[in-house]
TrEMBL record:
This is PQQ-dependent sugar dehydrogenase. The keyword Glycosyltransferase does not apply. Residues 52-306, 385-461 form the Glucose/Sorbosone dehydrogenase domain. Keywords: Signal.
Length: 490
């Protein structure tokens, strides 16, 4: 196994029912991307549950049940891992908002088990469930006019009857919109909430005239006023369980806020290793999906740099700064940038940033033709770009699958694959991504059975994916809105 070693692991202040019986090799190849040897453990694939509306998070709960948020279904659902029976635990139809075709809705989910450090009676208190979701306001944001916001709400879990009660709003007014929500929620060993906020798709597609604020840091005034919408775009947050700013969060640009890292595009993957190392995945624009190690106070480069600072097939084209032709008079094009839009090479930006420990969809040089004829119909070139669109990241720390202990499992959307990246013994690097399962699905999230022998994978209900045979765009999903179960053969 080859590791891309890294010297950037700085010591951190943060301690951080229906069975479709097919046997699939663990290393099925796909139409594009990294290849892998045709060996490894064999799995039995089954469809555990169907009929979910865009499951966004999938977790094994402390009550022995699978739990999912449904982005467009606007609810939290419990899934019996034995029967696949689904039960609505929380219906947020009246509180939450999803835009058809958008990335907003009911998104993040995390459990926090009783902690001896809280709970007045010494029992460790209750088991909490945190949920993040988009809601509507009548307050247009500065510059963009956006009226969507996101909140994180804490509920109390009854492990016996599997119900949620006592909602407490932890943090409101966070950025939301129809693109790049990220919205991955984890609880650290330090008892803090870690939450990813995307760049809201600023500077691309429908939002191409919105300035990208992934490098914009909060001012003290904004922190004092709770004005999170602008400065928290493209960030990773660390939040006290009551929503306040932890007093040991880093001071960045002279200000302490919820922000622990910045320069992120769309961090849909976030997970801790047992030793506290925090791994994150980010989606690249046309190249350079990233896997990063997150340490507090660091800049991860977006939108000035993607992957490494190597000027390969990427320059930051800042549409919002177009002059003399104002951006509003332009037509967006992902490939051809008009001369009025300023462009900056990666090496023209001198800021300090932390490079990734691995990238996917990287191996193209400047001059590469991103117009693949396979994706010409309807101009769906983005489906053919070398990127795979990582959608979640799970640290596999169990013994259930031989050879897998200490790996990252990475789900992807348009590539329809789950990748495995072996973590190096020192935790600071990963091996080459190995594609373990591919089908015509948009894989969204992973949960593990307690022994690790079964990997549950949630799939989007709709969207575009690469045809498994031709690589051309397809909207035909094999298992829409489902939870698949891959059980290792023993
Ligand atoms: Ca980066
Ligand atoms: Ca680069």
């Amino acid at each position: 196994m080859k590791y891309r070693s890294t010297a950037l692991v700085a010591v951190s202040a943060l301690a951080l029912g229906v069975t479709l019986a097919t046997s699939v090799p663990a290393t099925a190849g796909g139409p594009t991307g990294p290849s892998s040897p045709a060996s490894g453990p064999e799995f039995t694939k089954s469809v555990l549950a169907t009929g979910l509306n865009d499951p966004y998070e999938l977790l094994w709960g402390p009550d022995g049940q699978l739990w999912s948020t449904e982005k467009s279904g606007l609810k939290v659902t419990r899934i019996d891992p034995d029967t696949g029976e689904t039960t609505t635990v929380l219906d947020l139809t009246n509180e939450a908002h999803h835009t058809e075709g958008g990335q907003d809705g009911v998104l993040g989910l995390a459990f926090q088990e009783p902690d001896p450090h809280r709970g007045g009676d010494g029992s460790g208190g209750d088991t909490y469930v945190y949920v993040s979701y988009t809601y509507m306001t009548d307050t247009p944001a500065e510059v963009t006019g956006e009226t969507r916001r996101l909140k994180i709400v804490r509920y109390t879990l009854d492990c016996d009857d599997h119900t949620l009660s006592d909602p407490e709003e932890i943090l409101t007014g966070l950025p939301s919109g129809t693109d790049h929500q990220s919205a991955r929620l984890r609880i650290g060993q330090d008892g803090k909430l870690y939450y990813t906020v995307g760049d809201q798709g600023a500077n691309q597609l429908a939002h191409f005239c919105n300035p990208n604020w992934a490098q914009r840091l909060p001012t003290q005034d904004e922190v004092d006023q709770g004005a999170w919408f602008g400065p928290y775009q493209g960030k990773i947050l660390r939040i006290d369980p009551d929503g306040s700013v932890p007093e040991d969060n880093p001071v960045i640009g002279g200000v302490r806020s919820h922000v622990i890292s910045y320069g992120h595009r769309n961090s849909q993957g976030l997970d801790f290793a047992p030793n506290g190392t925090l791994y994150q995945s980010d989606q690249g624009p046309k190249t350079d999906d990233e896997v990063n190690i997150i340490n507090p106070g660091n800049n991860y480069g977006w939108p000035h740099v993607v992957g490494w600072r190597d000027d390969r097939a990427y320059a930051y084209a800042n549409w919002s700064a177009s002059a003399p032709t104002p951006c509003a008079d332009l037509t967006y094009d992902d490939i051809d940038v008009p001369p009025s839009v300023p462009q900056q090479k990666e090496t023209d930006w001198n800021g300090a940033f932390v490079p990734p420990i691995s990238t996917l969809g990287t191996t193209v040089d400047s001059g590469f033709d991103f117009r693949d004829p396979k994706c010409a119909e309807g101009g769906l070139y983005f489906i053919c770009y070398p990127t795979v669109a990582p959608s979640s990241l799970t640290y596999y720390a169990k013994d259930g699958v031989p050879g897998w202990k200490d790996s990252l499992l990475l789900t992807t959307l348009k590539d329809g694959s789950v990748f495995r990246l072996k973590v190096s013994p020192d935790g600071g690097g990963v091996g080459e991504p190995e594609r373990i399962w591919t089908s015509q699905n948009r894989y969204r999230a992973i949960a593990l059975s307690p022994d690790g022998g079964t990997v549950y994978v949630a799939t989007d209900s709709a969207g575009l994916v690469r045809d498994v045979n031709t690589g051309a765009p397809s909207a035909e999903l094999e298992n829409p809105g489902s939870v698949l179960a891959f059980s290792v053969q023993r």
